[in-house]
Structure formats: structure tokens, C-alpha cells
């Protein structure tokens, strides 16, 4: 067991290192000489050469990478070109709001997706099953920005129940209730895709488990159907669902950019969306680095948790 | 049920392909002709779905947009399919250090949430159609390599491969004539589903300002431009979104239905 956990940790560290290499290579992909760009048209070739040396751009790429990595590890991801602030502090202050939206979305996705999938699987072919799976497929076919606009249109413009965007009201009552009202529409929009995929995986996983011999045994010894499903089958059926849930971290982080842009939710996604508009590459790449690192770490944690929830991984 | 799903999905996909080919030929107006005097005109016999913020005909822009969406959703996945088959077969069949190396690179590639990887590449290379195509190829290929490798690894153990080899078949012959035909159905299913996802991915890049640029008649661009007038003229932004949804739904219906039909375990 410890060997497994240890191996997974080393693997995670290597993948994180790989992620940093890819982000560094993206920086290198940007056309043009950064030193020349910085000096502008007035810079003489001699000045450009001196600045290149000062910035370390005349060193081999591997050395440049190591220096960049050293700074990144110490929390220096450069300075935002549009906001003139350190990228690290911008990213971390806004990440809190993204984490709140992401957590709300994953909770909704689990609470809506798993019951829908399980109920469908226990009544295959029923009206509930057919409609439920059709809705799940719809949710997996909707672009989130379109769903977001439809939600604003129906919930804010026509029904006037929810605020159009933002996180707190400028005027009027503030507090947890106000925050919750602002959270509803972005959460529905961001969690929609995950609800669909979790429902579909829960259903197929449950169907597979119900067909196994041990479930037949439980049934043939006269157990009530409820006990068979919820005590015996559910535990095993949820294992693949846990993996899919952990993969949703990536979907939610990536999807946050579009969702936060539509609802003006002041998180890392909105920061990156504005940075795209301003061609502020340090913020864009810093955001990608942080989001991807979070995704890798979340998946590693879930993998290790697997050892706890599935004894076969521990023993096998 | 499954058959109906494939039939309905195929109708959507066929409609999309027809629109991509014939749409621009039958579009009633020039999709780029700006006329501020008739901006945000309501639907009329002349402009069936009305006009957008710059007075351009929405129907015509939708029709031209279908062609753009078709190119950006199919080209990357076709290229990725070529890369996936080549690299996946090599990794799965050769095994050893080569396989190990390819898989570790994939570990890193797949560690990025899809949209973020595409976004980073598009941001670094500068926005545009070419960039969007490259970024999408890069994110389409790794899952296909991993899928093909897994299928080849499983197929390698089958008796029919052993039989073909002992009859003296060369490695390329075993791979193409015997293995490839046996692993092709999951690959087709995956490619179909990915094409649908690509329609959304490409539109997302356009929406974020990193893909195809305005004033191009692209569904993502149209949606993004219509956002500012969502309360005033909801159709401008919601109709291109509906088009994206229906096309993606079509590919999902076909891919999902095919998976269940092709999977012998589900056929009962």
C-alpha cells in the first residue's frame, strides 16, 4: 500500500515537472524577441543585445527553463503586462472565487448526477430512464456559454429572479443570501456537463454491477431489493464514478473561464478571459500553470483515496 | 431505441454536412454586408431570422458558419486520427522503451484540461483559424494515441494474431489486415464523439477571442458578438448556440448509439 502511494506521489511530481516544461515551451512559442518587444522601436541592436544578456535569453534553452522554474517555484510568475501587478498575487486572490464556484458545481453535479443514474439503472427502459438519459445527453451536447446565456435570459432578464452577473450586489442587501443568489446561475451553467456525464457513468456502472453473480446471490437469499441495490450493489457501482468525478476537476477549471466570463464572476477564469483580451501572456500562462497543477494534484489525491475505498487496489 | 438514436443523430449530422456544402451557395444575402440602418431587424420574409448588430443577415451568416464549423471540427480530428493510429500502433505493438517513452509524454499532455491546452497554444501562437486548427489537433491526438495503443495491446494477445503470425504473415500485414479491422469500431465511435466535442471547442476558442476572428461568419464569433444585445435581441446570440447544440447532439446520438450497437456485450 505504501509502495503504491509512494509511486503515485513520485509520478505526480514528474507529471508536474512535465506540465511546467510544456508551459515554458508555450512561452518560447510566442513569436518575436521579448527583449526587442520590451525596448520597442527605439531600441538599438546593441541595447537589445545587452537586454537579452541581462534577461538570460542568450543562454541555452535548458538553462533558461531551469531559471524560469526556480523563479516559478519561489512564487514569481512574472508581471502582468495589462495590470502591472505580480501574476502570482493576481492568480491566487482570484483563485479563491473560482474554488467556491467549482466546489458548488461539483456538489450539484454529484447530488444530481448519481441519483439520476442509479434510478435510471434500477428501472431500465422506463419513462424515467429514457427521459433521464436524454436529458443527460442534452447536457453533454450544450456549449456552456450558450447555456449561460439562456440562463441569464430566462432567470435574469425575463423572470428577474437572479442577478445578471458578478458576485455581490453593489447596492442593496449583501451577505450570504446575496452571494448565494449570485452563485445559482453560474453553478447551473458550469455543472451541467458534469451532471450529464456523472449520470451516464453511474447508470452504466450500476447496470454492470447488477448483472454480477454476487448481486444475484444477494437477491436469491431473499434480501429486499432496496437492500440489494443500496447496501450491496451501490458501493461497487460508485467506484468508476469516483474516477469520473475527479476528472471533472479539469472540466470545471477549464469551463470556469467561459462561465466566469459570461457571468462576470471575479475568479481566475475571468482574470484569464480579460488577459486574453489584453494579450497579457504572463497572466494567461500563469493561470494555465496553476489550474493544470491543481488538476494534477486533485487527481493524485483521488487516486490515493482509491486505496482507502477499494481494498482490491491495496491488496492487488 | 439505439437504432432510432443513430437514425435521428444521422439526420442532424447529414443536415450539418449539407449546410456546410450547399449553405453558402443558397445563402440569400452576403454574410459580410454591413448595413447599420437595418441593424437588429426582426424576422421578415427578406431576413428570415432577422439581422445582427451590424445589420448582417443571420441566416446567411449561419449558413457560411456551417462550413467553418465543419472544417474546424473535422480536420483536426482526421489529422489526430492519423497520428493516433501511427503512434498508438507503434507503442502498442513494439512495446518496451518506445512505448514507455510515448506513454510518459502522454501523461503530461493529458494532465492539462483540454480547453486550457488549446487556449495556451492559441494565446502563444496568436489568434486565427490556423492557430485554432493546430491547437485542436494537439488536444485531439493524445486520447486517440492512448485508445489505439490500449486496443492494440489487447488485440496482440488474441489467438487470431498468433495464427496469422504463425502462417508467416509479415508485421505490416498482421497490423493492417488482421488487427486494424478488429480495433476499428471503438476508434470510429471515439472519432464521432470527438467531432461533436470539437464543434463546441472551436466555438469556445472563438468565443474567448482566440480562435476565428470577427468579422468571420463563425458560430462562436456570432454568439460572442450577440452577447451584448442579449436582452434586446435574444435571437442574435441564441440561434448560433442552438446550431452548435444540435450539431453536437447529432454526433453524440450517432456515436453513443453506434457504441451500443457495436459492443457485442450490450447487444443482448
Q: What report would you give on this structure?
A:
With 316 residues, chain A is mainly α. Chain A folds into two domains: 2-73, no CATH class; 95-278, MetI-like fold (Orthogonal Bundle). Helices cover 78% and strands 0% of the residues of chain A. The radius of gyration of chain A is 24 Å and the shape is globular. In chain B, helix 1 crosses helix 2 (58-94). The model of chain B has no long low-confidence stretch (mean pLDDT 90). Chain B has one domain (4-23, 47-267): MetI-like (MetI-like fold, Orthogonal Bundle), CATH 1.10.3720. Chain B has helices spanning 2-26, 58-94, 96-109, 114-125, 129-156, 159-166, 171-207, 219-226, 234-262, 264-267. Chain B is mostly helical and 268 residues long. Chains A and B meet through helix 1, helix 6, helix 7, helix 10 and helix 11 of A and helix 3, helix 4, helix 7 and helix 9 of B.
List keywords for this structure.
heterodimer; A: mainly alpha; MetI-like fold; 13 helices; 78% helix; 0% strand; B: 268 residues; mainly alpha
Distance, first to last CA of chain A:
9 Å
Q: Oligomerization state of this entry?
A: heterodimer
Counting helices, strands and paired strands, the structural category of chain B is mainly alpha
Structural class of chain A: mainly alpha
Whole-number mean pLDDT of chain A: 90
Share of residues in helices of chain A: over 70%
Determine the strand fraction of chain A and express it as a percent band.
Answer: under 5%
Provide the CATH superfamily of the largest domain in chain A: MetI-like
Characterize the largest beta sheet of chain A: strand count, sense, and whether it forms a barrel: none
The coarse overall form of chain B would be elongated
The name of the CATH architecture of the largest domain in chain A is Orthogonal Bundle
Order of helices and strands of chain B: HHHHHHHHHH
Task: Indicate the low-confidence ranges of chain A by residue numbers.
Answer: none
Major protein interface: A-B, 49 and 44 residues
CATH superfamily of chain B: MetI-like
SSE series of chain A: HHHHHHHHHHHHH
Tally of structural domains of chain A: 2
Amino acid at each position: 500500500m505504501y509502495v503504491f502511494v509512494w509511486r503515485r506521489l513520485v509520478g505526480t511530481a514528474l507529471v508536474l515537472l512535465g506540465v511546467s516544461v510544456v508551459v515554458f515551451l508555450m512561452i518560447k512559442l510566442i513569436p518575436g524577441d521579448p527583449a526587442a518587444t520590451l525596448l520597442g522601436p527605439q531600441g538599438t541592436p546593441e541595447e537589445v543585445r545587452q537586454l537579452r544578456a541581462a534577461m538570460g535569453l542568450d543562454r541555452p534553452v535548458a538553462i533558461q527553463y531551469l531559471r524560469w522554474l526556480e523563479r516559478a517555484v519561489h512564487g514569481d510568475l512574472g508581471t502582468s503586462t495589462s495590470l502591472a501587478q505580480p501574476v502570482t498575487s493576481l492568480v491566487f486572490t482570484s483563485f479563491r472565487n473560482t474554488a467556491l464556484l467549482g466546489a458548488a458545481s461539483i456538489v450539484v453535479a454529484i447530488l444530481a448526477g448519481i441519483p439520476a443514474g442509479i434510478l435510471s439503472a434500477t428501472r431500465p427502459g422506463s419513462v424515467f430512464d429514457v427521459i433521464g438519459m436524454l436529458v443527460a445527453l442534452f447536457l453533454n451536447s450544450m456549449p456552456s456559454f450558450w447555456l449561460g446565456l439562456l440562463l441569464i435570459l430566462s432567470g435574469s432578464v425575463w423572470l428577474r429572479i437572479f442577478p445578471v452577473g458578478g458576485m455581490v450586489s453593489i447596492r442593496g442587501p449583501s451577505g450570504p443570501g446575496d452571494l448565494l443568489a449570485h452563485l445559482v446561475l453560474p453553478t447551473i451553467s458550469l455543472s451541467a456537463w458534469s451532471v450529464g456525464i456523472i449520470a451516464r457513468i453511474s447508470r452504466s456502472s450500476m447496470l454492470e454491477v447488477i448483472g454480477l453473480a454476487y448481486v444475484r446471490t444477494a437477491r436469491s437469499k431473499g434480501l429486499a431489493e432496496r437492500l440489494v441495490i443500496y447496501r450491496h450493489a451501490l458501493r461497487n457501482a460508485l467506484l468508476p464514478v469516483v474516477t469520473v468525478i475527479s476528472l471533472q476537476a479539469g472540466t470545471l477549471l477549464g469551463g470556469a473561464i467561459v462561465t466566469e466570463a459570461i457571468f462576470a464572476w471575479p475568479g481566475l477564469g475571468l482574470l484569464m478571459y480579460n488577459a486574453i483580451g489584453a494579450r497579457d501572456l504572463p497572466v494567461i500562462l500563469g493561470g494555465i500553470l496553476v489550474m493544470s497543477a491543481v488538476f494534477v494534484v486533485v487527481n493524485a489525491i483521488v487516486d490515493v483515496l482509491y486505496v482507502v475505498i477499494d481494498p482490491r487496489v491495496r491488496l492487488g | 431505441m439505439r437504432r432510432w438514436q443513430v437514425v435521428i443523430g444521422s439526420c442532424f449530422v447529414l443536415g450539418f454536412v449539407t449546410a456546410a456544402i450547399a449553405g453558402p451557395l443558397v445563402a440569400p444575402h452576403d454574410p459580410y454586408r454591413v448595413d447599420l440602418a437595418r441593424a437588429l431587424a426582426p424576422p421578415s420574409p427578406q431576413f428570415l431570422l432577422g439581422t445582427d448588430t451590424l445589420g448582417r443577415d443571420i441566416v446567411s451568416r449561419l449558413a457560411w458558419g456551417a462550413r467553418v464549423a465543419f472544417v474546424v471540427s473535422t480536420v483536426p480530428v482526421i489529422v489526430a486520427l492519423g497520428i493516433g493510429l501511427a503512434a498508438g500502433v507503434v507503442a502498442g505493438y513494439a512495446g518496451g522503451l518506445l512505448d514507455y517513452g510515448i506513454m510518459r509524454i502522454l501523461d503530461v499532455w493529458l494532465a492539462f484540461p483540454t480547453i486550457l491546452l488549446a487556449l495556451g497554444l492559441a494565446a502563444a501562437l496568436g489568434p486565427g483559424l490556423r492557430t485554432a486548427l493546430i491547437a485542436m489537433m494537439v488536444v485531439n491526438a493524445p486520447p486517440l494515441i492512448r485508445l489505439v495503443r490500449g486496443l492494440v495491446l489487447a488485440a496482440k494477445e488474441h489467438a487470431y494474431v498468433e495464427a496469422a503470425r504463425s502462417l508467416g504473415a509479415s508485421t505490416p500485414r498482421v497490423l493492417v489486415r488482421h488487427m486494424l479491422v478488429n480495433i476499428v469500431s471503438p476508434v470510429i465511435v471515439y472519432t464521432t464523439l470527438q467531432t461533436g466535442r470539437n464543434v463546441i471547442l472551436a466555438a469556445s476558442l472563438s468565443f474567448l477571442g482566440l480562435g476565428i476572428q470577427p468579422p468571420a461568419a463563425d458560430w462562436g464569433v456570432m454568439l460572442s458578438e450577440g452577447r451584448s444585445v442579449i436582452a434586446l435581441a435574444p435571437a442574435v446570440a441564441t440561434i448560433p448556440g442552438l446550431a452548435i447544440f444540435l450539431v453536437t447532439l447529432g454526433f453524440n446520438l450517432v456515436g453513443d448509439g453506434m457504441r451500443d450497437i457495436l459492443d457485442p456485450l450490450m447487444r443482448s
